[in-house]
Known about the structure:
Distance between the termini: 89 Å
Number of strands: 5
Oligomer: single chain
Structural class: alpha+beta
Number of helices: 7
Number of domains: 2
Order of helices and strands: EHHEEEEHHHHH
Helix content: 55-70%
Largest sheet: 5 strands, mixed
Radius of gyration: 35 Å
Strand content: 5-15%
CATH topology of the largest domain: Beta Polymerase, domain 2
Low-confidence stretches: none
Shape: rod-shaped
CATH class of the largest domain: Alpha Beta
Amino acid sequence: MPERPQWLDLIDPTAVELHSALPEHVHATALEALLAPHVHEDEPRPKIDTHDDYVIGIFLVPIAVPAEDRLYYQEIDFVATPEVLVTVSKTPPGEQPFDPKPAKEACRAHEEVGMFVYHLVDHIAESFLNLVDDLDNEIDDLEDMVAGESPPTVGKRLRELRQDVRGIRRTLTPTRDAVRKIVDDRVELDAGELFPRDVEIAFGDAYDKLLRATEALESSRDALGGVRDYLQGKIANDQNDVMKRLTLIASLLLVPTFIVGLYGQNFRHIPELHWVWGYWWSWGWIVATTIGQLVFFRWKRWI
C-alpha cells in the first residue's frame, strides 16, 4: 500500500528546519526565497515555478481589518513534490502568520499532493473574493459620507481606498496568472505527475474565483471613480451656492450704494439736503428698493 502523502506546515523556519523538511536537491535560489523574510505589504510577487522534481509557489493572502480600517498581507510559500507538500508561513511585522488549517481540513484521506495545493490556492482565492466584498462595503459607506462629511475627509478616504485597490490588483493579477499555468497544463515535473487532469479541473474552480475577484475589483475601481465624480459635483454645487449668495448680497447692496453715492455728491444745491425729511427720504428709497429686489428675485425663483 503506497504511503499517504504528507503536508508539513512551517512557520518562520530556520535554515536547519527547512532543510530537514524539504526534499533533496532544492536549488539555492528556492531556499533563498523560502528563507527570505516577509518584505512588506504586497511584496513579493506571487508566482509558481517548476524545477526538476518539485514545484515552488509564493503567494500572498490579503487580510482586511475593518475595525482598524486597514489591509495587510500574509505570505505563504510552498514546495510540492508528488510525495510531500511543505508550506512556509511568514509572519508579517506586527501581525499573525497565515494559518493553513482551513485548507488542510478540506483535504480528504485519499487525495494526493496536487489536491493539497488546490485546497491551499482555493482558500487564497476565497480570501480575495471576501476582500473585494469588504471593499464594496467600504465604497458604499464612502458614498454615504459624501453628503454628510467635509470634502477633505471624504477625499482622504477616497485616496486610501484607491491605494488599496491598486495594491490588491498588483497582488491579484499575478496570483491569477500563476494559477492559470496549472489550468493550462504548463506545470510539469521530470519525474512523476503533480497535477493530473482531475486536479487541473479543480484548479479551474480556483482560477474562476480569482477571475471573478478581478472583475469585481475592476467594478470597485469604477465605483470609486463614480464616488470621485459625485464628490467633485458636490464641491461644484457648494461653490455655486456660495457664489449665488455672494451675488445676491452684492445685488442687494448695489442700488442702496447708488442712492448713498447720489446724495453724497459734493454739491450744495441738492434739494433733499435742506429738506427736514431728506434723511428719511433716502432711507425710504433704500428700504423700498431692497424689498423690491427681494420680491423680484423671489418672483424669478432665484432665491
